[in-house]
Amino acid sequence: MILLNVFAVVLPCVLASRTRGSSGTLVDFTDPKVQGHLDALVRMAQSCVIKVRATPKDVRAYFTNSSPVSRSGQCFATCMLEQSDIINHGKVNRDLLVHLAGLVNGKNSRVVRKLNSVSRLCLDSISGMTDRCQLASTYNDCLNENMIEFAFPLDIAEEAVRKMPFHLIQPNLPQEMKHPNY
């Protein structure tokens, strides 16, 4: 990642705090610290939308912890995880994922303890996969399925989707810009 912000961890579940928000999740989205992480996450997503030509459905699926519905949705998840260095050269850096979650939530927080065990389980779900987009998407799906209590509320997810530069994706972009390395 650490392209944008060391705290801008890709996965919505990592932004959880110890208080229960109005949406029923364990996330306090009014916390300025969490807001800063969300802003960085949105900037990463904007870049990934352009790189993989993600659709609004792709981005919505990502931010609502749903499985991608298309190849571009899988590659969008890949781009997000790779920009965060959570996945690098097809390998998951589980230690970095847990470390970044600890920076936001505290090393001994509930989210970090759960993420530590769930992330190990999710490594099994990608064993033997070689396709980058499938690997990252499957890993992300596994984390989301097992950490649903830390998900973005729908209104926050929709706001993130509204901030995406879909208007910049033109059908006449040069081929190398359409799917660079995805």
TrEMBL record:
Pfam family, one: PBP_GOBP
Span of the signal peptide: 1-16
Entry-linked Gene3D superfamilies: Pheromone/general odorant binding protein domain
GO molecular function, one term: odorant binding
This protein's UniProt keywords: Signal
CDD domains in the record: PBP_GOBP
Protein name, UniProt field: Uncharacterized protein
Organism: Bombyx mori (Silk moth)
